[in-house]
């Protein structure tokens, strides 16, 4: 069977449940997914595993929902042997009836006609970008993020603020947009971009659609034979991710971000303490966060993502966080998956170095701790998970790191983004004195 780890944070669990209920009670447009996302990030609630995976008959559950409301409707959903969309190399034959959907809308993790078309489109885009010559990104590799066209879009400028002038990076950087407003803005700003199908989910919450979208983007790129480093839109890229190093580890199929990290302890106690600390963390929990992910283009990685999505269909609407399902799918790989009819296969995933940083520290406020800030020059990235102030936190982190590298001193903890640099800054109107 396929199990979640037990929830270790009831307070975060209740927060997620409350927010999901509120979102379900109020109809929202696709752009609201980001506003929800800024308040409840996957990182902040990793340990909120709020459900257990099991065999859930999605067809029956949806049919009962309509019947209880007095509406008679025949649903074309999963499990039919014919009429399913053709998804080419992106869905294995033995997972077609577990994963594919033949209706107009798709429930969270399931895949329908429009998404199969999206896989083909993003695959072509990724191959084109991956073929571009680059001195700083590995061959046949793209860097991706995803966002929407509401206020959260403006985080994108901070994601790549340090790299926007590096052509070797920008021509391999791909933005996946959740809506047309994002696509229009990204095109105007000169980003390589592609739009995810807007009506790709009939989820009770737009947050569910948005989080599962991440795995579908990954399947589209990896299933097309292109390597990918993917980050959430609240990750600052201080420097170009070390994709050549990742790719050189030929036995590693994927790498994930550490969910939480005691940076104060690491920098005050040294490498040996850090190793023992992380060994202890991993012995007790996964510490798996999908906010920063490396995927090697391989059949194994594609199968991993597919089985995660298939279990996402089975456990809906009680899956909890999609990253928990993704991690459990990796744990299931060596023993096989009888529920899905997947034979055992080798899969090797490893944590990214701690220089691919997380804001979740569980000890000190790392952006106001000089013992940590003075080491920020070593960091490649920072994921502002566990923070309610995404945009400000990202902008302030860039300035603190710059201060620590250029004029190091404890006062760097007070460095921050100037108001004139904010996307919403409005210069005061000029006034003319009366004579």
Automatic annotation (TrEMBL):
It comes from the Eukaryota. InterPro entries: Nucl-diP-sugar_transferase. Residues 169-388 form the Nucleotide-diphospho-sugar transferase domain. This is Unnamed protein product. It comes from Bathycoccus prasinos.
